[in-house]
């Protein structure tokens, strides 16, 4: 796989973080709206802790929590992704847009790999894959079989301008309680019944009475405790007063990632490197017998086999079809969207930035971590007190009525009980809950022990979805343990993927599992195993996912100790084909160009013809006519092994492209 910006440990830690909900009063939203932000967006760039936290484990040993990040989101009472595990339309569109807008930069870092007679110029990084992976993992739906994406706390935010702030806090607290406990809503999901409520008084420095805000805050400390509330002062300047002062805008990158409506900001037209043939964004919709795949309209031209050359006149690759593509492909729109010109944080000074950062630190270290520590201790005490009775009864029952440990390798033979739901107070779920709490605060040894215990219980009950979740996180916990006391149990991940995909029919969870495991295998230089895993996850239900994973598999082959150059090229072609079907034409063109480095001049004329033909067609579709002419010209050779009919089709297409390129204005 290509190099990643984050280490695998950082990647996994950022994939599973404590979730914090936000409920804001209307007046509080008005305060943050001056900065074109809501309250959760205001906090987002400051949600990574820059200092270490400390907490005690159940054995009373002090544990250090490093580089912790929390996720803060507004309360939304509708699911973003169907619970069936099949990504919805909006989710597919988001992922497609993320990949579409992330392209290699002109003059970007390349990785030159020498393997035998080959000197290959290959992308050193694949930021489009990392962007896809990040968006995919951050948009994971909350599930009932695990608690990792459930909310641990809720920030109740009230403006200091309220007539009686305490009454507003009471209403927000009652609203949170109703959402969690009334049974009206299935989403959002909450980690534990006694959700931490943290009271935030938001004061607008530009127009509020600071002395009154301080007085209200003193009253709050008496009511909620000094560790249960906070006075956050913002908006220390007006937007007009500091117009000439350059203040950093750390919000844009976060808002861009989470917005489906944000328009892609277009840069100047790029020159075309000889290897990648990159261009500015054009319309990714050809409009010719199109259908929707992965949230993007794609053309029927892309639905051919990746190694199939098109035959003449009545086929998708004919001159008429190519002409239709050229006519119907629209030029790229100008970047006139409001989002591109919108500034954020215009009323905030650098001191305000520091205040927000300090607020996150105080909330996490004095509120959230003690709350998690208390709940881990309580769960541990409950499980220890139950263990003697329940486990002895369980063992006796198994002894007299049969049963025993269910071997993990026989999962395919087990009865599908994926619909099984444990009651909230079930000991098995309490173990899983404790494991997830420990994992989120980096207590990986204890988390592994709990996951391992839960895994055995779930397998005994043939609760396969729950078992797969415990296997997945047990494997990750084992890998993250300090000093790696045990080897990474890759077979746990393989079993979890098989169960998610084949038993529970949940491709979202299967994909998450594969993304995590592939990164771990890659970090251990097990590139062959990583490639095999990635290839297994390709399927017909998502061209975009298949394209990205095939490309990563290709990088695995080329990064082996003895690079497998032809496998790299072959999987790049497969990736290019799936990118094209997904409507990602620029990525498709890049993949074919990288593969051409291997096939060019090696005597594989039919393979060269196919790649050149595809490069020509994609280049022309992307309005790169000169590159298209060059590619088609390579097909027209005296020693061609194509049939005369096929050569005639190539010639007609070449002449059409040539005329369109050089004689377009002569008529």
UniProtKB/TrEMBL annotation:
Domain of life per record: Eukaryota
Which InterPro entries does the annotation name?
A: TPR-like_helical_dom_sf, TRAPP_III_complex_Trs85
Q: Which GO terms describe its cellular component?
A: TRAPPIII protein complex
- PANTHER family in the cross-refs: TRAFFICKING PROTEIN PARTICLE COMPLEX SUBUNIT 8 (PTHR12975:SF6), TRANSPORT PROTEIN TRAPP (PTHR12975)
Which named protein is this?
A: Trafficking protein particle complex 8
Native source organism of the sequence: Oncorhynchus mykiss (Rainbow trout)
Q: Which gene encodes it?
A: LOC110521746
């Amino acid at each position: 796989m290509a190099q990643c910006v984050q280490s695998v440990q950082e990647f996994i830690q950022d994939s599973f973080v404590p979730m914090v909900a936000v409920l804001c009063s209307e007046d509080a939203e008005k305060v943050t709206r001056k900065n074109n932000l809501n309250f959760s967006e205001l906090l987002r760039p400051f949600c990574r802790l820059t200092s270490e936290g400390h907490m005690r484990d159940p054995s009373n040993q002090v544990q250090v929590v490093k580089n912790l990040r929390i996720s803060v989101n507004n309360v939304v009472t509708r699911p973003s992704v169907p619970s069936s595990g099949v990504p919805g339309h909006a989710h597919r569109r988001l992922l497609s847009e993320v990949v579409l807008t992330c392209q290699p930069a002109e003059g970007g870092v390349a990785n030159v790999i020498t393997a035998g007679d080959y000197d290959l110029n290959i992308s050193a990084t694949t930021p489009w894959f990392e962007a896809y992976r990040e968006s995919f993992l951050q948009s994971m739906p909350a599930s009932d079989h695990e608690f990792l994406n459930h909310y641990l706390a809720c920030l109740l935010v009230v403006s200091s301008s309220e007539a009686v702030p305490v009454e507003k806090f009471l209403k927000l607290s009652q609203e949170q309680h109703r959402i969690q406990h009334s049974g009206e809503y299935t989403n959002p999901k909450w980690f534990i019944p006694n959700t931490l409520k943290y009271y935030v008084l938001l004061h607008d420095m530009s127009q509020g009475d600071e002395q009154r805000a301080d007085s209200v805050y003193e009253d709050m400390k008496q009511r909620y405790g000094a560790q249960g509330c906070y006075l956050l002062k913002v908006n220390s300047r007006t937007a007009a007063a500091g117009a000439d002062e350059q203040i950093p805008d750390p919000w844009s990158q976060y808002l861009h990632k989470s917005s489906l409506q944000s328009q892609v900001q277009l840069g100047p037209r790029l020159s075309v490197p000889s290897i990648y043939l990159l261009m500015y964004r054009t319309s990714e919709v050809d409009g010719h017998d199109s259908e929707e795949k992965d949230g993007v309209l794609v053309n029927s031209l892309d639905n051919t086999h990746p190694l199939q050359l098109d035959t003449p006149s009545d086929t998708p690759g004919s001159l008429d079809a190519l002409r239709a593509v050229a006519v119907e492909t629209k030029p790229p729109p100008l970047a006139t969207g409001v989002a591109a010109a919108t500034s954020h944080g215009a009323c905030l000074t650098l001191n305000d930035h520091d205040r927000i950062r300090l607020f996150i630190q105080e909330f996490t270290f004095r509120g959230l971590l003690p709350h998690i520590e208390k709940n881990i201790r309580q769960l541990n005490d409950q499980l220890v007190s139950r263990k003697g009775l329940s486990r002895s009864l369980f063992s006796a029952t198994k002894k007299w009525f049969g049963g025993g440990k269910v071997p993990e390798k026989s999962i395919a033979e087990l009865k599908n009980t994926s619909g099984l739901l444990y009651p909230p107070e079930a000991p098995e779920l309490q173990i899983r809950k404790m494991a997830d709490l420990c994992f989120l605060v980096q207590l990986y040894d204890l988390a592994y022990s709990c996951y391992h215990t839960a895994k055995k219980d779930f397998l005994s009950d043939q609760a396969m979805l729950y078992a797969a979740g415990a296997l997945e996180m047990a494997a990750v916990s084992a890998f993250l343990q300090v000093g790696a006391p045990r080897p990474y149990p890759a077979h746990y991940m393989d079993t979890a993927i098989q169960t998610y995909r084949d038993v529970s029919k949940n491709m979202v969870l299967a994909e998450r599992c594969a993304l995590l495991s592939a990164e771990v295998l890659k970090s251990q230089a097990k590139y062959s195993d990583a490639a095999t895993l990635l290839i297994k996850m390709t399927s017909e239900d998502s061209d975009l996912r298949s394209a990205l994973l095939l490309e990563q598999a290709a990088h695995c082959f080329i990064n082996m100790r003895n690079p497998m150059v032809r496998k790299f090229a072959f999987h790049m072609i497969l990736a290019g084909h799936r990118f094209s079907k997904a409507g990602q034409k620029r990525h498709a063109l890049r993949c074919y160009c990288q593969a051409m480095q291997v096939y060019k001049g090696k005597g594989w004329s039919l393979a060269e013809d196919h790649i050149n033909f595809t490069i020509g067609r994609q280049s022309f579709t992307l309005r790169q006519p000169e590159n298209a002419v060059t590619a088609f010209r390579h097909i027209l050779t005296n020693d061609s092994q194509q049939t005369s009919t096929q050569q005639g089709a190539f010639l007609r297409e070449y002449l059409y492209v040539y005329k369109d390129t050089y004689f377009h204005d002569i008529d």
